[in-house]
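G.,

No rush on this.
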Amino acid sequence: MKFVVDTHTHTLASGHAYSTVIENAQAAQKNGLALFCMTDHTSEMPGAPHYWHFMNQRVIPRFLSGVGVLRGAETNILNVEGDIDFSDFCLAQQDWILASLHEPIFKPLDKSAHTQTLINVIRSNKVDVLAHLGNPNFDFDFKAVIYEAIKYNVAIEINNSSLELSRAGSAPRCLEIAKLCKQMGAYVSTGSDAHFAHAVGEFSKVEALLTQIDFPLSRIISISTGQFLEFLQLRGREPIAEFSHLQR
C-alpha cells in the first residue's frame, strides 16, 4: 500500500509549525509523493496567518521539486451550526479544504452536540474532508457522521499524527472509524498533519492500520493521483490544468 498524496501539511505560517513550503516539497519528493496539499490553519487558531496568505497562494508554482502543490487550508469548526472560519470568497480560491475541531476554538461539549456539529459541517458542502476525527475529546456517533459524509461525498481523514504524536487516545477510535468507513463505503484520505518537513509523506501508522483491516484501495483517495483528482471533480472542483497528465 503506497500513498502518493499527502492531504494535510503545515508550514511555518501556521504559527506552530517549523518548515517552509519549499522544505515540505523537498521532503515530499524524497518520500515519493506526487502531490501534497498546503493546509495551514485559518484565522481563529492562535498564531494563524492573515487571510491574504491563502488568497495569494496562486503565486506558488504548481510544481515544486517535481511534486504537485494543491492550495488549501485547514479550517476551524466554530460552533454547533457547523460554521467555519473561512469566507466563501476565500473558499472559492482553494483546491482543498479540511475542517477540524480544535479545543482552543471549539470547547468540547457532548457526543450529541459533536455529532450534530459534524453533520452540519458536511451539509454545508464547504469542506472536502473532516480531519483527525479520532480525538477522544470530541466523541460523536461514528455511523451517523460517516453516513452523512457518504451522502455528500466528503472524505474521512485517517491522520498519521493522531496515531503517533497527537491527540492521545485516538488510535483505537481511528481503527473503529476506519472499519466503519470500509463497511459503509466511505472515502478516506491519508494526511500526515506534518508540522515539520520530515513528516511530510510519513504514513507508516496509517498504512499499518488500513492494511490491518484490508481497506479497499478504491476508496482511498490518496492512493493515486488519478483517484485524488477524480475525487476533487466529484466534489465539484474545476480540473487543475497543470495536473491533467496526472489523471491518466
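When you get to it, here's the other one too:
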Amino acid sequence: MPRSAIAAHALDPLTKDPAKAEAYRYDTYLREGIHSLASAGGRAGESLLDHTFVVLKPDAFAGRRCRLILDILRSEGWHPVAATPIRFDPLLVRELWRYQFNAASEQRIAVVDHLLSSGPSLLVLLADRQRPDWLPASARLTAAKGSAEPSAARASDLRSRIGRVNGLFNFMHTADEPADVVRELQLFSYQAGWDWCAGPLLGSGPTHPAWTPDALLTELEAEIPAHDLDVEAALRRLSALSFPWGECARANNTPDTIGNWLGMLRVAPLPAGGARWDVLTVLTSWIDCNEPGVTPLIATGTAEAWRPIALPHEVSPV
C-alpha cells in the first residue's frame, strides 16, 4: 500500500530537487496547500510560476528596511500585489524551517524565537514581471537574494543591498521554489487565511485596499521602535541600565562572553522598547548560527536547476 496520497511525480512541476520532492510527498502542509489551491480553482498552477512572496521580519521593521526592500524588489521586477500581517511563534518557526533547523546551532535556536516574536512581520505576495519563461518567480528571487551566510555575501545580492547586519538580522525570508511557496503559504494560512492573496494568486479579482503593503507598513512600524542595530552602540546603551541586562553588558562586553548572555536570556525577560533590540543586536552579532559540519536535510536549490537541458542541435559549437 502507498504511504503517500501524492503520486511519485506529482511534484515535478514544483521542485527540481529529488530529495525535496520525496520528502514533501509525506509533508502534511504541502499536501494541504495543494488541496487549498486546487479547491479554490482559478489558474493556480500558472500563478505559482508568476508569483512568490517575501516576509518582512521584525528586524526589518526595527531597522526601517521595509520600504527599501520593497523598492529594490520593484526595481528588479517583483511587484507587491497583496500583503497581510503575521506573527511568528515557536511552532511556526520550527515548522517553516523543518528541513533546515537540524543544522541550526543551539545558540541560534535559543535566540531566534525571541527575535521573531519581537513584533509583527509582513507577508507580501509578489508578482514577477521580469522572469524568464523557464524560471519560476520564487527561484529567481532565491538566486537574487544571495546566501544567508554573511561570509558568502556578494555586493550584488539583495541582502547586501538592503544592508544585512548578520546571519539573523537579514530582514527577509522568501520561499526557495514553487513547492515551498505552496507549503509555506499553507502554514501562514492557519493564521492569515487565503482571502488576502486569493485575488492576484488565483485570478479571482483585485486585491482589497486593506491588504496592500502601503496600507499596513505605517501601522506595523508603530509597534517596533526604530533602531540602529549597531552592536557597539547597543552595548553602550545597555551598560547604562540597571540589573540584569545592564550588569550583563558591563561584565560581558566581548564576543567570547556570549555564553553569559545566553545564560541571562534563559532566566531574565528581555527589556522593553529599544533596549530589547539592544540585547537582540548583541546576541545576533555574537552567536554562531550553524552547527559545524552539519548540513540541512534539504538544501537551498539553485536557479540553474530549472534551466531546460539543451537538445543536441541547440548546443552551440565550441
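The longest strand covers residues 78-86. Residues 76 and 130 are 8 Å apart (CA to CA).

Enjoy the weekend,
O.
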